[in-house]
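Now for a concrete sample entry.
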Amino acid sequence: MAVGACAGKDHPENFGKASFWTAEALLGPDARFLYVICRIHHSIAIVPVGADGALDEGGITRFELLPCANSRNMTREGSFLLVASQDADAVEVLQIDAESGGLKRVDTQPVACAADCAVV
């Protein structure tokens, strides 16, 4: 199923509120990028952060999570993000590119109803 098939304002759980719901946001390792879970869109928005701390909303890119993931939580350890994708029953492991801030999926582990994740 394509990501768009379960995304957007007409989603039955959206209640007409918005096209995107934010679940959590984290800064990257060098604070040059902000990573934001967009639940209804099933993606992570990658927002450049200027040296002055201002967000560059014109430079936002997106990384697609698993279809209908309904991701709720993420944690960062070094150059990796772990994303709990509740409705996809998985934890996605994403590597952060140090130069571009882009993400690359390096692993996906099945976890029933993954609503939270942490590095211990």
About this structure: Residues 3-110 form one domain. DSSP finds no helices and eight strands in the chain. The chain has one domain: 3-110. Strands lie at 22-27, 33-38, 43-48, 61-64, 71-77, 80-85, 90-96, 103-110.
